[in-house]
Each structure stands twice: as structure tokens, then as C-alpha cells.
Automatic annotation (TrEMBL):
Protein name per the record: Aspartyl-phosphate phosphatase Spo0E family protein
Gene3D superfamilies per UniProt: Helix-loop-helix DNA-binding domain
Organism, as annotated: Rossellomorea oryzaecorticis
Domain of life: Bacteria
Length: 59
């Protein structure tokens, strides 16, 4: 898979996770354990995206 496609896929997953996080947090609260887990998953996706993007610029 090309790097640009990887970045697009990661961005898509980030948007899905952000939407899921928002919906869950609004109903269950921002300190609910699942809200925190979803936030951490979003953070991890962001980290992967940043690493991928950085590797593109190093080439």
C-alpha cells in the first residue's frame, strides 16, 4: 500500500474514532473509563499518523 493511502486510511480511522469518542462522551461523561480508552485510542492513531507523515519527509 502506498504511503499516501496509508495516511488517508489513518485519517479515516481517526475521524471515525473521534466521532465515536464524542458520541460516547456526551452520553456517558468525559471521565467514564470507556471515554478515556477511546481517547487513548485516538491519541495512538494520531501518533501513528505523525510517525508515517514524518517518515515521508525523511525520504
Amino acid at each position: 500500500m502506498q504511503t499516501a493511502n496509508k495516511l488517508q486510511n489513518i485519517m479515516y480511522e481517526m475521524e471515525k474514532k473521534r466521532s465515536e469518542l464524542q458520541s460516547f462522551a456526551l452520553v456517558n461523561g468525559f471521565t467514564h473509563p470507556v471515554t478515556i480508552r477511546l481517547s487513548q485510542e485516538l491519541d495512538e492513531l494520531f501518533n501513528v499518523y505523525t510517525e508515517q507523515k514524518t517518515s515521508i519527509h525523511k525520504k
